[in-house]
Amino acid sequence: MKKIIFVFLFLITSGCSVFQPEESTLIQPTLLKQSELPPFRVPTYTNYFEFFCEMQINKHGDVDQVKLLTSSGDAIWDSLATLSLLDWKYTPAIYDGNPIKLTIRRKIKVVFAEPKILSLAEIQLDNVEDAESVYQALLNGDDFTSLVLTYSTSESRAKNGLIGSINIKHFSEEISVALNQLKEGEFTRPLSYGEHYIIFKRLKLNNQL
After folding, report:
1. What is the pLDDT of residues 148-196, one digit of tens each?
2. I want to staple 92 with a disulfide (CB 3.0 to 4.6 A). Which of 18, 44, 99, 105 is the partner?
């Protein structure tokens, strides 16, 4: 039975909401993490579905506005998909070395596939120097939770770094590959995540640090 939707993105066109920079000076946003799209409420006879959308991405890589340019034929699904797309996370677009707000158009291919669920905790750092320092502390045997409480800048710090059971296929390829290699109790090297660096730790599925 087809259980879940996994999404691949392909860039079609882009344009800035403020001005139109030359393509050679513009660094396009890169998808870091996507949220779950709603399940289809009607039968499908293929293993994928495609649609087009327009997203406005702010200077921090967050999606401020979404417009579906093609419909699935189900108004309720379209509405729920729009809400999901607002939770996607990108790197910011860069023009002349500075982050900018950008409106992009994308073709989204929805592929039906099984999820890969892991229970994860994180330590988020705001610069590479801090990230490498904390990583070395972990390699030297320091306690993960103690380092979360001392150094993490994420809201998950209030939960000892716990971010819960996550479908890792919703992360970027670099992050999902690194997470897929983890055994329970292991942690990643610092991974670039937009304006931050994150060290992930794989937990038991009962979410115990």
Report:
1. 999 999 999 999 999 999 889 888 889 999 999 999 999 999 999 988 9
2. 99
Predicted TM-score (pTM) of this structure? 0.69
In terms of residue numbers, what domain contains 177? 117-203
Range among 26-35, 75-84, 138-147 rated most confident: 138-147
Q: Are residues 17 and 97 in the same domain?
A: yes
Q: Which contacts of 140-148 are long-range, i.e. CB under 8 A and separated by 24 or more positions? A: 144/187, 144/201, 144/209, 145/209, 147/123, 148/121, 148/122, 148/123
The string over 103-128, giving b where at least 16 C-beta atoms fall within 10 Å of a residue's C-beta and e elsewhere, is: bbebbbebbbeebeebbbbbbbbeee
Tokens 């000892």 belong to which residue?
A: 160
Does residue 208 form part of some domain? Answer: no
